[in-house]
């Protein structure tokens, strides 16, 4: 259901139960969720895995949006990726799973945003500067660094997704 307030999410006011320092992360994720839903409403299944001019497909962006949120929020919790998460990472953008549809991928992203918001709600602001290791090499970050990166990376891919969708839709006419 579309929001009743047409302002961008960050202009709609604070989100209940989200710590003040994490409001921008939550706002960005909610904005991304709304934009993905709008962009892909009625998007043709036949174009889901097309790569116009060699750019990443719509299907890849949808898989990656979901996966990157899952992975970065896992690291923010101080956990390492599971075998299932590593498998999902390895197949992002590769041959599409049988029966994979646009609504399925959009719904998976929406659910991942909900899980991220739930995690933000229970994140203690006192932990934001705690160190976190990323990946097998345990590259240095912090809880806050990972959460902000998740929001930034998500919005970057929504922008790329927007261009790809528009190019593909233009080719229909």
Automatic annotation (TrEMBL):
<protein>
    <recommendedName>
        <fullName>DinB-like domain-containing protein</fullName>
    </recommendedName>
</protein>
<dbReference type="InterPro" id="IPR034660">
    <property type="entry name" value="DinB/YfiT-like"/>
</dbReference>
<dbReference type="Pfam" id="PF12867">
    <property type="entry name" value="DinB_2"/>
</dbReference>
<feature type="domain" description="DinB-like">
    <location>
        <begin position="29"/>
        <end position="161"/>
    </location>
</feature>
<dbReference type="InterPro" id="IPR024775">
    <property type="entry name" value="DinB-like"/>
</dbReference>
